[in-house]
Amino acid sequence: MFKNTRNRTAYLTFVCLLVISLIGCSSAPTPSSNEGGKSSSSEPQKGGTLTIAETAEPDTLDAQKTFMSQGDFVSGFMGGSLLTFDPQTNELKPYLAESYTISEDGKTVTFKIRTGVKFHDGTPLNAAAFKASYERALAKETASPITASNLPSVKSLSAPDDTTLIFHLEKPAAPLLPHLTYQGYMQPLSMEAIKKFGKEYGRNPVGVGPWKFESWKTGESVSMVRNEEFNWALPYAENKGAPRPDKLVIKFIKDNQTMLAALDSGAVDIATVRGKDIKKYKNNDKFTVLEGTEPVMKCISMNVENEFLKDVNVRKAINLAINKEALIQADLQGEGVPVYGPIPSMMFGYDPAVEQYGYKYSVEEAKKMLEAAGWKENAQGIREKGGKTLSLSLMISDAKPGNQLVQSMLKEIGIDVQMKMVETAAFFEEEMKGTYDLAMDEYGDVDPDILFLMMHSSQIGVVNPGRINNKEIDTLLEKGRMTRNEEDRKKIYTDIQKVTVEQAFMVPLYTSKVFKVVNNRVQGAKQNPMAKLSVYDMWIKQ
User: Transmembrane stretches, by residue range (predicted)?
Assistant: First the structure.
């Protein structure tokens, strides 16, 4: 869910964008000469501090109460998940579960829990601990914004013995397994620690992961130390024991130029760098660049309850007026991929045919569409109809060159657009209330079920920024949630893409390439299709 940048993940099981586990990329990146920071001349060493820059600070490290993708990202280093996606193959694999089975009716999912795993406070991890954790997430008093939504259709859980965890579902829930890969949001929590710290648990997290919480300096950093007892690494990790660095520090640096200066000086070892800034780090002997693409997309949400945007022809004209390639160049220095429908190409269910039937940039076609709908240009070149001017506001929460480009592109076809800059919290509030016209948005997830939140009529006032109320879309989204057969499920999402484009419910824009820049004093960083950070095999060259 939204998991990035402007953090729609705060509402969606989105995007995080930094920790989304689904992998996919149309082409493999070109590694630097120091492939993945690997060293052929020395063996891995223990010791040192690994420092990662992050642009935003979490609201809490209680994984079940965080609204932010940063909460998932940071707490994920201290946690673990029942399942995981292999970053190279995108194969779903057991992790803290040794195996799982699904009943024929799809309503019972049974996990065999791994033995020998302990929380940082010494409490053993067993099925009862998972059961208690997820029951806490589902409890109304917890008010879990993301973890609870990642447990669709869960009626109850049972743990008949230490190694058996059973999910009892009201109806089949295809997104459940992908959602159980989040090491932050979906990690088991120590109930003993929650009892001990109470409301302060979010500042004193206790998990089962390779890193143990040490301190949180508000506005500066979160520090973690190596879990010496850790020997239950992810299945794709080469290092099966405790991490090699002594310490892991997540340093919060909001300003982009300050972050780049810290990376250049060696004050931080790893940072996510924007496409417009990546050139100087490529083919630089001091750094390794991990390049990938996430299942996250930028779009323009359109409030279909707006008196002008109710007209599908106006929505189609707006789609035709947008030059996606120009926006990619302006916002990302060309480091992005155009998107033509509601599902990005790296996400399950993507239909390549959308690249053919999706809207292509055509100013003339856009003008014809408005003319046919009765909108005529006035002396100022702005369209009018029935005494009303075709004027819309574009809500934004960050300043990007593409915002002004969108404004000028729409003006070219006779639509007057006024920019409206708002803070992130106000942005979400206006979308929920439907008090906006157009909005620069972003969303993504490990599963296309994200579209249920983005487009189902039951989500109006909750998420569903476009306030879409379409019976065909609702029915398809409900089927997509319940259908377990992969091919049948793909067909459902193919139909969803077609209807969304036909009705022009949104303006799909682009998917950004992701760049993680690693100082070469850090060894063992591995190229993978989504530039996912895996610190299991990293070590500091002394």
Answer: none
